[in-house]
């Protein structure tokens, strides 16, 4: 697969350092781990895991408006109208 673009993200330094250690323990670097995540996201049109923890409340089965509100809170543009109608192209 040709790699011809760059993704730049901002994240917590501790999250990055811990993730790098976990990935390294699996024989991966962070770039490969993120690429694997994005390929799986594209193949399945959903997250390859169920978000957990205080940063991600258990709203994934809630009303689309509640999900849209959460998405807007974390900075995603979402009005809830497309929930359950993810792109399957």
TrEMBL record:
Signal peptide region: none
Matching InterPro entries: Arc_rbn_hlx_hlx, RelB/DinJ
Coiled coil, from the record: none
Pfam families xrefs: RelB
Keyword Transmembrane helix: no
Keywords: Toxin-antitoxin system
Family statement drawn from the similarity comment of this UniProt entry: Belongs to the RelB/DinJ antitoxin family.
Protein name per its UniProtKB record: Type II toxin-antitoxin system RelB/DinJ family antitoxin
Organism annotation: Levilactobacillus tongjiangensis
Higher taxonomy: Bacteria, Bacillati, Bacillota, Bacilli, Lactobacillales
